[in-house]
Specification:
- The protein has helices at residues 8-11, 27-31, 35-47, 67-73, 77-80, 91-105, 151-194, 203-228, 241-254, 278-295, 313-318, 364-374, 423-435, 446-456, 474-484, 501-508, 520-531, and strands at residues 52-57, 62-63, 115-121, 125-138, 142-149, 237-240, 261-266, 273-276, 300-311, 325-334, 378-383, 389-396, 415-419, 439-443, 462-466, 490-494, 512-515.
- The protein is α/β, with parallel strands linked by helices.
């Protein structure tokens, strides 16, 4: 029988390491593929996996870590194989993971889920990884495992959680502040109403003054809380941020708040215009500088710099609340004791403080945070123990300016409707207006206001309208009133305006706002501005 002729295909030899050894493939050639070639193929996949893969022997030492494992830890394969796995664990993880490892060795624990741990990479760089140990354990006493670097993912999650927590706190603070504002409005209005009825030498006058002073202190506290919750009304105008920073430093020096502190300012000569409420931003900057001063009890260096920066995608993604575009960056750096890592996420919470009892309310930084948020900006803190603290403030650079001015003339003529659901606030507002010569019609809510306006609308010169009311809120009432009389004059009275409602009121034709709590003089000034 003749031998079969050799074909060209039969001459092709499988080259070890060649993933595609020939153009043609059949069962015979596949069976003749050497084990070395197949191992090499799988080893290539092992080495280039997107997770860090490695093997541990029963003594706890690494065997054959892949390239991603080298990249995550920062050590070469040769160096890793001389390291015990526990040497890469953060101190808080060692006890648990070592115990976990012993249970696996004894076959008393079969790992089913990955766990998240903190490791110390090269140069003691902390990293967060997901650790997964395979269920299968090699007969020769080897355990296969993998790690995935989730450090950046963890940071973004924490930023998002912190942002949501601060948002919830802000909403809670606004709701509580609104209730307190109604109470304080009644107290301040009553005390200012009673003042003229008594002489300064009379004992009753002294008590009225004490009440008024205490209520005013309450107003300051609520004002700070509302600044944190972004529920306070601001008056932004175009101004050079460099002037604001210089005036803040000068003011702190004049109040002797920077004793033993050396202040260095790195401020460019060219102006950096920005649309802000000057006094609120100064207040926020002073709070941060005061906090820095307290951190440098024995003296130190306080550095303040300003510049214009362009925020890109990467930075805005890592700092929730920022968008791409140009921002004014104010950086405040101190050489104080620094802040612990575990404390850092909470420093902007209201009433959170690390100071001794009686040395601080814990509102300074939370107020600053609220003010910057209300300006569509943010503040970022970086710190470490004995390395000082850096506060980076980012405020959006403006596109155009706007200014306004008004002249006040006091006068007491006309008819005013007061729409207010809180009885004490309604009563004292009526008394103040009637004493000043105004005729007053009152309504407890929006529905009653509409009924009264249908009857007496032609005689009403102004409506003082509360925002938060039962049955029909201020905005709904306002819209219905404008349908009944397009040119009706409305003064909005509120402790805070949720969801940027102020813009909607102004677009609808509201002529002004009065912030609760208010004094008798503040109320009369606001009313006279509109009526005159």
């Amino acid at each position: 029988m003749d031998k079969p002729k050799k074909t060209e295909d039969s001459k092709i030899k499988n080259n070890p390491g060649d993933i595609n050894p020939g153009k043609k493939s059949n069962k015979k050639s596949a069976s003749q593929t050497s084990p070395f070639t197949q191992n090499q193929r799988y080893y290539y996949l092992y080495q280039h996996a997107t997770d860090g893969l490695f093997i541990l022997n029963y003594d706890g030492y690494f065997r054959d870590p892949n390239k991603m494992c080298e990249r995550i830890t920062g050590y070469s394969k040769k160096k890793l194989e001389k390291i015990h796995f526990s040497d890469l664990l953060a101190a808080k993880e060692k006890r648990f993971i070592c115990y976990y490892f012993e249970l696996i060795k004894k076959r008393q624990l079969i790992p089913r889920e990955e766990i998240q741990i903190e490791i110390l990479a090269k140069n003691n760089t902390p990293k967060v990884v997901d650790l997964h140990i395979l269920n299968a354990i090699f007969e020769e006493g080897l355990i296969q495992a993998s790690i995935r670097d989730v450090t950046e993912k963890k940071k973004l999650q924490e930023l998002l959680i912190n942002s949501q927590r601060m948002e919830c706190l802000g909403k809670l603070v606004n709701e509580v502040s609104h209730k307190f504002n109604d109470i304080l409005t009644a107290i301040l209005g009553s005390s200012s109403y009673l003042r003229p009825a008594f002489g300064e030498e009379e004992e009753a006058f002294k008590y009225i003054e004490a009440i008024h002073k205490s209520a005013s202190m309450g107003v300051d506290l609520v004002s700070q809380l509302m600044a944190f919750g972004s529920g306070q009304k601001f008056h932004p105008r175009l101004i050079d941020i460099n002037i604001v920073v210089k005036e803040t430093i000068k003011l702190m020096h004049s109040k002797h708040l920077l004793n033993r502190i050396e202040v260095v300012s790195d401020i460019p000569e060219d102006p950096l215009p920005i649309q802000i409420d000057k006094h609120q931003i100064m207040h926020a900057l002073m709070n941060i500088c005061h906090n820095a001063k307290d951190a440098m009890e024995k003296g130190g260096l306080l550095t303040i710099s300003t510049k214009k920066v362009n925020i890109n995608d990467d930075f805005s993604l890592q700092n929730i609340g920022l968008r791409d575009g140009y921002y004014i960056n104010v950086r405040i750096t101190d050489t104080g004791m620094g802040i612990e890592e575990k404390t850092l996420p909470y420093i902007f919470d209201p009433f959170f403080t690390t100071k001794d009892v009686g040395k601080g309310q814990g509102l300074g930084l939370s107020v600053a945070y609220g003010i910057f948020k209300a300006h569509q900006g943010t503040i970022i803190a970086k710190s470490a123990i004995r390395q000082g603290t850096v506060f980076d403030i980012f405020l959006p650079a403006p596109s155009r300016s706007s200014t306004s001015s008004s002249k006040f003339i006091m006068r007491g003529e006309g008819t005013i409707m007061v729409v207010e659901d809180e009885e004490l606030v309604r009563r004292i507002t009526i008394n103040i207006l009637e004493r000043s010569g105004f005729k007053v019609i009152c309504a407890e809510d929006g529905e009653e206001a509409l009924e009264l306006f249908k009857e007496k609308g032609d005689s009403i010169d102004l409506i003082i309208l509360d925002v938060i009311m039962p049955r029909m809120d201020g905005m709904e009432t306002f819209k219905e009133l404008k349908i009944l009389k397009k040119d009706i004059r409305v003064l909005v009275s509120t402790g805070y305006l949720p969801n940027n409602m102020s813009t909607e009121f102004l677009k609808g034709g509201a002529l002004g706002f009065i912030q609760k709590p208010y004094t008798a003089m503040e109320l009369l000034k606001s009313v006279s501005k509109i009526i005159n």
